Structures are given as structure tokens and as C-alpha cells.
Amino acid sequence: MKKLFMKNPRLYLIVPVLLAIACLIYKFTTPDNEVSKNGLSISSDSVASNTEYLKDVRVSHDGAMAFEVPLSEIMAREQKYGLLKSQRINKKIEEREGPDRSNLPQNPNSPKTSQYPPSDSRNQNVQTNQTDAPQTAGITFNGSTGGGSSGPFPPDVMGDVGPTQYIVGVNGQFISYNKTTGVADGVINTTPDNFFASVMSSNSGTFTSDPRVRYDRLSKKWYFIIIDVPAGTGAIANRVLVGVSPDSTIKVSTIFKFFFYQHSGTFLDYPTLGIDANALYIGGNLFTFAGAFSNTNALVIRKSSIQGAGPMVTTNLGNLLPSASGAGPYTPQGVDNPDPNATEGYFIGVDNATFGTLQIRRVSTPGGTPTISGNLTLTVSTTASPLVVNHSGNTGGTNGRLDALDDRLFMAQMRNGTLWTTHNVGVNSSGVSTSATRNGARWYQISNLTTTPTLTQSGTVFDNTASVNNYWIPTIASSGQNHAAISFCFAGASSRINMGSVGRLSSDAAGTMQTPLIISTNSSFAYNPSGDPGGSGGRRWGDYSCIRVDPNDDMTFWAINESNPSNNNYGCFVAQLKAPPPATPSSISPSSVPIGSNIAVTLTGTSASGSGFFDPGSTFANHLSVAIDGGVVVNSATYVNATTINLVVTTTGATQNTTRLVTVTNPDGQTSSATIFVVLPVELSSFTSSVNKNDVNLKWSTSNEQNNSGFDIERKLLSDNNWKKIGFVQGRGNSNSQVDYSYNDTKLESGKYNYRLKQIDYNGNFKYYDLNTEVQVGIPSKFVLAQNYPNPFNPSTKIDFDLPENAKVSIKIYDISGKEVANVMNDYKTAGYYSASFNASRLSSGLYFYSISALTDNGKTYSSVKKMMLVK
């Protein structure tokens, strides 16, 4: 929040009726301060009720010790004294301004670019009529409504998502919603004043302001912080109020622990909040009691100290600026960090003294005795103060425009060792902070936080058209997938006020976002609330927004920003932003598995437009899952990367012979499916081979068969890629016990062979089973001429011979008289097993002789003669 006191919480004034009437007179006779804030007091006819209300509030006198208050007690007060809400009147109170930053000097080293690394393509420019954002809107709802004549102005839009709820925390209302339905769950619905009544300052007229709500996945608790405004003046040192839930879901039976930190010497405004494994980091701006900006401040609350009875251990790290105009972080943002192993904490802000500069402060030993570093200065692209925002339907002229605060950062969040943050800045039509004509959302990713911080990338979301639309009050977060999303408010002279988002995929070019998505659907409502006529600084808006990642899946974003849901009213619009869906399953290796198997397979997917598999890790509630229909049991699914999952499946009892549907469900519940997996009817339990000279004996066994027609036996030379069918063995059909099979492949030539079985069912489905080892037919040990076969024969026969050495081989045929009648072979052969074919179709029946002679390379000779009978 830029300016302090325009809030509408409940004040507990114990004053005479005449004083209340005087307040009414003051309201209607005192001219509006154009940048004031609205507090709340109680009208005269409810003073007695207010007195009674205070009697029902149990009060803590030691802010360091946990003060337990059941939610049922808080809500009972809300129910009992609910009429007080309708009796509020606006009370104009002196504002608290930040320093005038509009004329700060520019960092001379800041480049005049819209993004880093720089790009000539200007691909940060946006067109608002497109909707191809990487995240898509899911559940949306209006979390809280205000405006009209009563405000509060501004609401200080805040909220966060937990395992089961979304909690909206704004000035004037804390309310819980079922995050699955977007419907209020009735658990908590009260004012921040009533919620924190036990720990507020005791001064009459005190109210609360600037809420922050955070769900912390590491401790599985909700944290609420807020400041109070003692006596409603800002001229008294105030408190930081802290509320902690006992667990992850707020229920009617929840008992909150409340603490407070008493500030001193100045007024602490615009509290920020970051949470990590060790601490809560609360930054803020400091003002003198006369209302002048004086410094910035950093508080560190040891997280372990507020999990039980206390005492709460708070370390005030002191002023962060050497002077009100000195260099250092302005509006220091405490940094959220979900890393359970974090050992350091951080504050970050824009530089108090120059544009184009960020200042980081590193907190060491935050869970013990914290110490803070000096300024860690980071030069970024030029920046500038934002402009007051025009909006379609504005009837208030220049005074009716909307406040954009200044160039302060809006929240900061760590992810995988890098810090993401954003702010609104004035830019031109190129997105550069020079001669600004519109507002853009500038974002940063910063690395090397533990040493010397460096800028990894930055960009600007802006309108490069003549429409001059504005993007302002942005916040950014990054998910476990390393995708990022920004939520923002959107408006222009020709555009109604709406809430929207923009995102980038982890694979997108550095410094770029994709096309923004306008989520709320205001096309006709105007915002001209009578309770906030505005001024030169415009009507109040913001003061902030929030976007966070779902603690169940680490991939879904939840955002809340101010919007305009009806004429002259604002809304606090909540949007679920869904990540891209899972990658489309494209293959499984192996693609088919026999019945009765328990086997590891690898699922591969195809990614498009950012789709991908994801699992957040074992500490999250939701996980990646895979289902295969037809009775296939997926025992485990292990995430490897965005396109790969390792599975272990069991196919006992599964449906065979048809391609099964594989469905991948990401942790966010989105699915992607394809029919790519087959369960075959045979489970092969063994497949072996043995060699006897040049004969190969194959044996295999099945432990389960259903609908098994049989097996083709296929062979190929190791040096060849062409498989050849050499036989078929009939299958058993159906069997629940072991069945043994064999096949003899005889009279092979020397060489190395591969074998495989092609199992075929009666429907024609098949699967290959490879013999795991190659088969080698070796060289004979001696010369052999075998008897021809068949014998007798008509008209063809085969003559086998063995060569233990390389030799010139001659095979001839002779008739009974010794006359040569045929020359079967006359060739050089390497050592090995051979079979020669002889066709005697030209010869007549009778007795014949065949002879072999071989001359080896070293001069050895071998010869042999055998008889054969031709019968026609």
C-alpha cells in the first residue's frame, strides 16, 4: 500500500454520542484529501453495542507469548455483533506518503531496453485480443466486494491457496473458500479487526490495515500478518500482528495462536511478508509521527518460535537506508522460499535513490541470530514511476483515474535458487522506461543470491498499440516445472477494468512472456465510487496482489487481483491458472507385454505448447499417476522428465489381444491418453539354444497361454538384417501350466546366427521374442563326405560335406561304367559345413557314384566316393 489510512475495519470507540455526531459533521464538512485513506468508526446508535463487544474480547498483554483464541470464539463475536458492519461511516484521516520518487535520477549504467537479454524482435509486445497463454483459467470467483460509498479504499488485495481452501484477506474481510468449488465454506468470514482483536493496540479508535495471508507448505500452517493503526492517527508507534493456524485446513474448531511485535519510534507501514524454512521476513516503510517518510525496516521472526507457546523471537535488523533519501531497498519485500534446505533469507526492493537499480539484503542464520548484509546492488533496465491509470467509463476526469502507487516491487518468491519479482513502471510503446505513455509490468529473475546476485533475465509486459492499455499491480511466481505466471490489473481509456494473467514456459526465450489472458469479463461496468472521488493521485487501487503455486501439486497457480465486477464496486477476483496438460503418450517400450508379466516399461510422450509430464516430489500431496485399462495394474510410475515416465506393470488377468488405453494424470488432475499398449496372450518363461556340429536346437517354454495359435521360427545371419521364416510350431491354445517347445534347425553353414520367435494368437496379433544370445556354427574338425539325401531320390538330392580347411573342391557324378555324367561343384570354399544340390532329371534310373576331391591351401588332398540310387 502506498498511502496509509483508507481502510474500513471495525473501530472500538468508547465515546459519547456527541463525539460520534461530531465525526459525522466532520465527514460532511471537511473537504476530501485527494490521496487519503478511509478508516472506520461506529455510528452513534451502536456505541453501546461496541462497548458490549469489547467486553467479549479477551486481550493479550504479552505479544511474545502465544495467545490462543478459538475460531469459534472469533466467529461468535462476528455473529453477535454483525450489525456493527452496517453502521460504519467513513472517517478521513491524515495519509502517510512515501517519498516522491518521480524525479529520481536514472542509474547511468541501466540499458534502455524492455528486456534482458536484449532482443531486436520486440517479442515482449502484446496484443490483448489473443488468448494463447501457457496457463489457462480454471476456477474463478469474486473473493470480496467493496466500493460504493463505504470502501474500504483500497482493499489491499491479498489471499493464498492451501491444500483445501483459498483464504482471501483484505481490508475489511477475512473469508475462506472451498478451492475445488470456489464457494465460501462458511468457516471464516470476519473482519481483520475482529480476527486480531485480542492483540490490537488498546487505544480507542485503533483499526487494522495492510493484511498479508500465506500458507506455508513446509510447516503446513497458515500465517496472517497485519499492522494496526493505534487511535486511527498514524501518530503512535504501531504493532505488527501475527496469527498462526495449528494445521493446514482452517476449521470451525481451529484454535489460532496470536502474537504481536510492538514497534517503537516510528510508524511501520506497508508490511511485506516472506516465509522460508527458517523464518518470517517482514519488511516495511517507516514514517515519523508527523507523517514524513524516514526509512525502511526489516524484521525477522524465527519460525520455530511461533509454532508453540512462544516466546516469539523477533529480530529487528534496523533501518535499511542511511537516510530518508539514501541508497538501499525501498519497500523491502520479504522473500518467500519453498526450499526446505534454505539457510539464508532475503529482502529485496527497488533502490531508494535511483531508478534502474534493485537492492538485495541477505539474511544469515535466520533461524538463529540473524544478521543482514549490506546492499547487494543489481543494475537493471531503466525504470520509471508508473502513470495514473485511465479506464473506460471514468466520469471523474483526471481525478477519477486509478492509483498505480509507485515503482515498488510487489512480492518476491524464490524457486530453485533464483528469485522472481515484478513491479509496474511507466514505459513507452517499445516497453522502455523513457517518455512513458503507459504502464507495463516489469519482471525479473535473479540468480547467484548466495554470492554476487546477477540478472538471469527480465522482461516487460506492455501494450505496444495506440490503445495505450495499462498493466499494473502485478505479481509473479514460478512453479515446480519452472514455468512462470504474472497476474495483473488491466485497463485503458478504451478498456474496462479487468484482471488478467500472462505466463512463460521454462523453454521460452529469455526475457519473454507469451500473450496475456484477460480473465475477468467486465465489458460494461464503470468504476466511479462515491466514497472515493479521487484526486490528482487518482482513486485508490491495490495496494497489492498475490499469485502463488498450489501446495498440493506445485504446478497450478492461484492469483488474486482487484477487478470491477459491477458498477462503482471493486472485486477481489480469484483465478486458478492451470498448467499445460501432460504430454501425449506416444509409445511404450516394450510396446506389448505377455499375459502374467510383472515388468518394467518406459512410457514416452510428445510435448506440444508446453505440455509435459510432471511430479512435484515425495513431500507433496498430489503425484503423477498412470492408468492402463483392460485390467493392467500399474504398480509404480516414476517421473524421469517432461516426456518420459518409467513404469512397472502387472498383466495378470488383463485383457489380451487389443491395444490398451494409457492415461497419464498430472498432479493437477489434467489427463492425456492414447491407445499404445498391447497385452499378449503368451508369457514366455525361457528361450535357449544348443549347437551340435551344424545343427541348432531351439527350446522355449511358456508359463501361461491364452488363445495361442503358435510360433513362427525366424533366423538371420548376424551380418544380415533380413529375417527369414524357417519353421512353425503349433501352440497349445490355452494353458495355465508350463508348456515346453523345441525346434531343430539342421545342416547350417558355418557362421553366426540370430533367432527369434513370432508368437501369434488366433486373432492375428503377434509379438516377437528374441533369443538373447547369438548362435555360432563352427568349423568341422575333419573332412567328411556324407551320404546323399534323400537316397534313393527322384530327381533331386543333396550332398553334404565338411571342410576343416580352405580348399579347392570338386564334386562329380559317374555312372556305373565310370563315365562322368555331371559336374556338381568346382569351386574354392572356405572351411565350413556345406550342402550341394544335384538334379538328375536328365539321367535315367540306375546306380550312380559321386566323388569329392579337395586340395587345401597347404597342398593336402582329400577324396571320397559314395553310391547313390536314382529311381524314376
Question: Could you characterize the architecture of this molecule?
Answer:
4% of the residues lie in helices and 48% in strands. The chain is mostly beta strands and 872 residues long. Among the domains are: 207 residues, no CATH class; 97 residues, Immunoglobulins (Immunoglobulin-like, Sandwich); 96 residues, Immunoglobulins (Immunoglobulin-like); 87 residues, Immunoglobulin-like, CATH 2.60.40. Strands 4, 19, 20, 21, 22, 23, 24, 25, 26 and 27 form a 10-stranded mixed beta sheet that branches. Strands 43, 44, 45, 46, 47, 48 and 49 form a 7-stranded antiparallel beta sheet that branches. Strands 2-13-12-11-10 form a 5-stranded antiparallel beta sheet. The protein is elongated and about 140 Å long. The protein starts with 16 loop residues before the first helix and ends with a strand. The relative contact order is 0.09.
List its traits.
single chain; 872 residues; mainly beta; Immunoglobulin-like; ten-stranded mixed beta sheet; seven-stranded antiparallel beta sheet; 48% strand; elongated; disordered N terminus
Topology:
Elements: H1 17-29, E1 37-42, H2 47-55, E2 67-70, H3 71-80, E3 88-93, E4 125-126, E5 136-147, E6 159-161, E7 165-170, E8 173-178, E9 183-190, H4 192-195, E10 207-216, E11 221-229, E12 239-244, E13 255-262, E14 267-269, E15 274-275, E16 279-287, E17 293-302, E18 314-319, E19 329-336, E20 344-351, E21 357-364, E22 371-372, E23 376-379, E24 412-415, E25 418-427, E26 438-447, E27 454-463, E28 470-478, E29 484-492, E30 495-504, E31 517-518, E32 546-549, E33 557-566, E34 569-578, E35 584-589, E36 592-594, E37 598-606, E38 625-628, E39 633-641, E40 644-650, E41 659-665, E42 671-680, E43 682-692, E44 695-717, E45 724-735, E46 739-745, E47 751-761, E48 766-770, E49 775-777, E50 784-785, E51 796-803, E52 807-814, E53 820-829, E54 832-839, E55 846-856, E56 861-870
Parallel strand pairs: 4-27, 19-24, 36-42
Antiparallel strand pairs: 1-3, 2-13, 5-34, 6-7, 7-8, 8-9, 10-11, 11-12, 12-13, 14-16, 15-16, 16-17, 17-18, 19-20, 20-21, 21-22, 21-23, 24-25, 25-26, 26-27, 28-29, 29-30, 30-31, 32-33, 33-34, 35-37, 37-40, 38-41, 39-40, 41-42, 43-44, 44-45, 44-46, 44-47, 47-48, 47-49, 50-51, 51-54, 52-53, 52-55, ...
